[in-house]
């Protein structure tokens, strides 16, 4: 019987290395493929050339494992689908998540199509998550399950995947702890065994985000305005779900000028570093940005009320179901666990389905709810769906 062919996205890191190795130990024909994506040396944080080093490590791993290897250049697709989108979002005062976009647009779309053109039955990655198949009404349903290693679970980054994409995907290390992955790599004496995890933007490398944005977004000096906690005294608390999902709109007269910045679009809610304003008992945090008036609003301390919201809104066009079979649920609400950023502990929440939008109401107020980011919702350890925060 002919072996199933799997194309592994070898990134030059330890996780994809062990994903490839584990597949070679099963009844698969394994091919290693390295993706070269958009890269600009002028905005990296060092003189290293990350993609060149990573592709070389990937090649050495493939050689060690005895599997075919090649590199594909996806620079044009990456620039069009990720980089240009990021510039547009930041210019509009929103904060996109390039890793989620990269998985949706590049790894599990462009890369997947290339793999299938090579005769692959599946693609495989080094993500810490799992896939299960259940049969409902004689139809195969693919479940996206959190990785066993709670500290490394990457299901959030895959929250925009579809059933068709999951059908063609394998996650060989999802059942392992990171420490186990490293141990296997050491035993195999792989060049990636002790390599640090990538901290840069997805596939770009060690990028300085402000420098990256300054390529197209021009510096524009504006005021940093501090909003005092007593600003909220006596204000009516939002009562409706719609009101609770809206962030407070500040005006310059609501606070005092404490400094200047080089462009409101360079800042995001919850940001502490880069403000260059001292002399306060507690650090200042960004609580809002106004890219039209070019103002950055800040509050003192991580418990400042301006940082917190109980609810958020997802526009209808931005709702995505991994479990497509649940998208037509008849109930007007659903109890879930949800997160609004990677590595955040899952939070108790309720989804409310309205005719104009989906609203997510959390049991506890959430810090730094940010437009352009993704909220993902779960039942137990299964990721059911996600949406872009309005």
The best one-word shape is: globular
| Rounded Rg | 22 Å
Q: pLDDT below 50 for ≥5 consecutive residues: which ranges? A: none
CATH architecture of the largest domain: 3-Layer(aba) Sandwich
**Fourth CATH level, the homologous superfamily of the largest domain:** HUPs
Strand composition percent: 25-35%
DSSP helix fraction? 10-25%
Write down the CATH topology of the largest domain: Rossmann fold
For the record, give the distance between the C-alpha atoms at the N and C termini, rounded to a whole number.
51 Å
What structural class is derived from the secondary structure elements? alpha/beta
Task: Supply database-style keywords.
Rossmann fold; 9-stranded antiparallel beta sheet; 390 residues; 29% strand; globular; 8 helices; Elongation Factor Tu (Ef-tu), domain 3; 3 domains; 5-stranded parallel beta sheet; single chain; 23% helix; 18 strands; alpha/beta
Q: In summary, what is this structure?
A:
With 390 residues, the chain is of the alpha/beta class. Helix content is 23%, strand content 29%.
Q: Could you characterize what this model shows?
A:
23% of the residues lie in helices and 29% in strands. It has 8 helices and 18 strands. It has helices at 14-24, 50-65, 75-91, 98-117, 163-167, 178-187, 209-213, 241-244; strands spanning 4-9, 28-36, 69-73, 122-124, 129-136, 139-146, 169-170, 222-226, 256-261, 284-290, 295-300, 308-315, 319-321, 333-339, 347-353, 357-367, 374-379, 382-388. Helix 1 (14-24) crosses helix 6 (178-187) and helix 3 (75-91) runs antiparallel to helix 4.
